């Protein structure tokens, strides 16, 4: 797989009304976000997170499932079996310099080692925050993810990525991991 094939961008994955609804339904329930191994360290990650499942958001879950299936067919061709974790909503606040340092989503725990694909959807309008750029480093050079609201970014979960410090406003994102037999 060449670095330029290491991610795919899907504009308009969710419409504005759905982004608003997710922020309004879940934005008040956020707790401090942990790390891949379930540890927490605010110098590595400072954000608030919560989770939703298929029964809470059947339409969004359907949309994500279809998008993942198509991207996997066209781009990744990984062996995927399920969503073993609920979808995550994260909020990075300018007041707290919200960020998430360079990391891979594949970890040592039973679930984190089965993460194969990471899907991130930008829920906030770019003019609602400053900084907060999602960046990928798939092969020695840094790629800035598009900030447009509703856009999905999909990449193998082992690819290094970060959220740069948010310096003003609030940035909301949705993350869904897709699981299967561990990479080997
Ligand atoms: O919020 C984002 O854009 C990325 C979140 C992330 O990398 C994670 O939760 O592992
Ligand atoms: Fe991540």
Give a summary of the structure in a few sentences:
This is Oxidoreductase. The protein has 184 residues and is an alpha+beta fold. Helices cover 16% and strands 35% of the residues.
Provide key terms for this protein.
binds fe (ii) ion; 184 residues; Jelly Rolls; alpha+beta; five-stranded antiparallel β-sheet; 2 helices
* Elements, N to C (H/E): EHEEEHEEEEEEEEE
Distance between the termini: 15 Å
Secondary structure class reads alpha+beta
Largest sheet features: 8 strands, antiparallel
What binds here, in terms of ligands, is: 2-oxoglutaric acid, fe (ii) ion
Query: Which fold does the CATH topology refer to?
Result: Jelly Rolls
State the domain count: 1
Multimeric status of the protein: single chain
Q: Determine and state the CATH class.
A: Mainly Beta
Low-confidence runs of at least 5 consecutive residues: none
Shape: globular
Topology, number of strands: 13
Rg calc? 15 Å
Could you outline the blueprint of secondary structure elements for this entry?
Blueprint: E1 8-10, H1 16-26, E2 31-32, E3 45-46, E4 48-52, H2 58-76, E5 87-93, E6 99-103, E7 115-122, E8 129-131, E9 134-137, E10 143-144, E11 152-156, E12 160-163, E13 166-179
Antiparallel strand pairs: 1-11, 2-4, 3-6, 4-5, 5-13, 6-12, 7-11, 7-13, 8-13, 9-10, 9-12
The chain binds 2-oxoglutaric acid and fe (ii) ion (FE2).
Residues 88, 90, 100, 105, 120, 134, 161, 163, 173, 175 line the site of 2-oxoglutaric acid.
